[in-house]
Design a protein that fits this description.
The chain has two domains: 53 residues, no CATH class; 135 residues, no CATH class. The strands form three sheets. A two-stranded antiparallel ribbon has the order 1-2. It has a two-stranded antiparallel ribbon with strand order 3-4. It has a two-stranded antiparallel sheet with strand order 5-6. Strand 3 and strand 4 form a beta hairpin. 52% of the residues lie in helices and 8% in strands.
């Protein structure tokens, strides 16, 4: 015995509820708000009525939101990558200048005679005092022993700054370190670009 396939019942296209007044009366199988899809009444209601436009806009937003979120995430990732690249470039320019400026001078913190492997060592640590990270007054040529293995040799560094530049120099540096919440400081692109250009100019002047 063969069962007859059940055919969907056709009903007239009549706008009901928020779509009232947009039906054409033609028999249709598939309908929304009483409007037939085959006769295009539903599409006309979407683009011509306030309620339809609102529904259409909600659908567009719903479909496009995942793509929008992805684009925002990609842009944020690119911005972070560019900022990291700029931070590293600024650091390179700053440290290159310091090592050129202090070339031939002994280690600021222990007096070891200059070597080509001397590093740019911070008096106030860059990871704790962010605003002094690129401050040339906070950075000096330092031997690897003090910078890497003696945690910067702070006491020797302090004496070295006084002996080389004087007490007032160190006092001014201490004041800078005590300004604001150092750990919460965030660098922006424009400031980093200006700092990088500043040190690149000073490097050129030293190489003349």
């Amino acid at each position: 015995m063969h069962l007859k396939s059940i055919q969907p019942k056709q009903n007239k296209c009549r706008g009901t509820g928020i779509a009232i007044g947009y039906g054409c009366g033609e028999p249709q199988i598939y309908r929304t708000y009483g409007l037939g899809h085959g006769c295009k009444c539903y599409q006309k209601w979407l683009v011509n009525s306030d309620a339809g436009k609102e529904k259409l806009n909600r659908s567009i937003i719903k479909v496009s939101k995942p793509r929008t979120d992805l684009e925002k995430a990609e842009k944020a990732n690119k911005d972070r990558t560019k900022l990291i690249y700029l931070l590293n470039n600024t650091k390179t320019a700053c440290h290159t200048f310091v090592k050129l400026r202090d070339y031939g001078k002994p280690c600021i913190s222990c007096g070891t005679l200059w070597k080509d492997d001397f590093q740019a060592g911070h008096f106030y640590k860059a990871e704790l005092y962010s605003t002094l990270k690129y401050d040339e007054n906070n950075i000096s040529g330092q031997c690897q022993g003090c910078n890497l293995f003696k945690d910067g040799n702070e006491s020797g560094y302090r004496d070295g700054l006084i002996n080389r530049y004087g007490q007032l120099y160190l006092s001014d540096l201490d004041k800078k370190a005590n300004l604001g919440n150092q750990s919460q400081h965030h660098w922006d692109r424009e400031t980093l670009i200006d700092i990088r250009k500043y040190y690149q100019k000073k490097i050129r002047e030293l190489k003349k």
